[in-house]
Design a protein that fits this description.
The chain is an alpha/beta fold. The chain contains eight helices and ten strands. It folds into two domains: 3-116 and 213-223, Rossmann fold (3-Layer(aba) Sandwich); 117-209, 3-Layer(aba) Sandwich (Rossmann fold), CATH 3.40.50. It has a four-stranded parallel beta sheet with strand order 2-1-5-6. It comes from Anaerovirgula multivorans.
Amino acid sequence: MKKKLGAITIGQSPRVDVIPEMVEFLGDNVEVIEAGALDGLTYEDILAFQPEDDDYVLVSKLKDGKSVKFAERYILPRLQECIDKLEREGADVILFICTGVFPDIFKSKKPILYPQKILHGVTPQLVDKGKLAVITPDKDQVVQSQKKWCETGVEVIAVPASPYTKEDELSGAITMLKKKDIDVIVMDCIGYNQAMKKKVSEGTGKPVVLARTMVARVLGEILNS
């Protein structure tokens, strides 16, 4: 019998831009079921979730491809509803497919995995005494990203580049990072894909950690045990 991975996006499901690249690392014995915190909402509904000065900012994608930015506080109850839904559908493990920081408020009978905790547990060990560069989707996330990663004890520089826009924001980030003395780059959003990782690695000449594939490799260890 296949094990079920319940994947929760902070945007709208299904995440056809994310899950297919993760599946190859999960093993053949895994079925992915999905839920989204913004499922059932219109773009106009989500505009009411705009972040204010002290909000924790999240960025995600809707089913129609639009990128949206919103305050985390608006979706916390909806995330619990996603957990409940996936539990009813038989999920063995639940994964937040977002690298943001979430409060410890969710209830589940199944293990809940947070990519942020996985990335923070591994990436600083790859840097040692060097400097870590973080690529984050939106300019409004730069300060919170810098603060989040500095808590791991490494020296950090953060730059913005959205994985969801048609504009080539990654080239601008690469140009900025080439001028910096950095050792490792982490692409701190599940929305970045393997082609984007290759572009950043080749453009900077530095090793790059991609959130979605690192998390998927760890999940593969759990789900195929």
